[in-house]
């Protein structure tokens, strides 16, 4: 036990100098109180691969934090107080037991990427539609059945909905101004849910929909597919 405490003390001392706290894979069931002394300093915190069942509200005092990784724990609920992390840009919460994202998380105005894959979400977090700088949303491996009707408010470039229970794609998604990549593999989508309007008018240049209730060859016969392929080909030329 003494060695574990000594090691944690060493991590804290290092974090004071580097502004990075790495507590990954330490079998922690709770965050040591001594960590809270780093609130004015730390910019990156890694709590992944532990046994945490909750995130303490005191983490909201980490006003300089830009990256928080709490993946691979046993977290069930998220506190509203985390929104005190005003500078947060990257939030990783994958592989936990989270059932809901608080509506207050619309206050994460600097958030650029959020990963909540492999949790217990059944409803798309509407608060994500309010985040203007959010580039990447990963909600894969949950049990979400539908996207919000006001999807046009989403500002993300990539939306990963793989391995959910989606039955349709709302028309409003074609109006997303920045959406380039839509991943919706292994859902419950029928061919009719991917409309010609979406294929023609959306900004999506990578549409991943394998493993749904239709054959991929049938998608290529839809009106508007040629427009989608033009965007796809152009994106390949741009980045490769």
TrEMBL record:
It comes from Paramuricea clavata (Red gorgonian). InterPro entries: Leu-rich_rpt, Leu-rich_rpt_typical-subtyp, LRR_dom_sf, LRR_domain-containing. Pfam families: LRR_8 (PF13855). One of its GO terms (cellular component) is cytoplasm. This is Leucine-rich repeat-containing 57. It comes from the Eukaryota. SMART domains: LRR_TYP.
């Amino acid at each position: 036990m003494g060695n574990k405490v000594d090691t944690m003390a060493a991590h804290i001392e290092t974090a004071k100098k580097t502004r990075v706290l790495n507590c990954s894979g330490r079998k922690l069931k709770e965050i040591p109180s001594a960590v809270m002394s780093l609130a004015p300093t730390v910019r990156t915190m890694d709590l992944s691969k532990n046994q945490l069942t909750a995130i303490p509200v005191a983490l909201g005092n980490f006003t300089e934090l830009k990256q928080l990784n709490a993946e691979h724990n046993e977290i069930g609920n998220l506190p509203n107080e985390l929104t005190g992390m005003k500078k947060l840009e990257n939030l990783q919460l994958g592989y936990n037991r989270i059932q809901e994202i608080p509506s207050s998380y619309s206050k994460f105005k600097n958030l650029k990427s959020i990963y909540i894959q492999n949790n217990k979400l059944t409803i798309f977090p509407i608060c994500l539609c309010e985040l203007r700088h959010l580039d990447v949303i990963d909600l894969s491996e949950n049990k979400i059945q539908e996207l919000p009707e006001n999807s046009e408010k989403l500002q993300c470039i990539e939306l990963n909905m793989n391995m959910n229970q989606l039955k349709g794609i709302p028309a409003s998604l074609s109006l997303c101004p920045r959406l380039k990549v839509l991943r919706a593999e292994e859902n419950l989508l029928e061919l009719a849910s991917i409309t010609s309007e979406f294929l023609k008018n959306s900004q999506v240049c990578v549409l991943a929909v394998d493993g749904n209730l239709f054959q991929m060859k049938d998608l290529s016969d839809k009106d508007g597919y040629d427009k989608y392929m033009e965007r796809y080909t152009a994106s390949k030329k741009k980045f490769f």
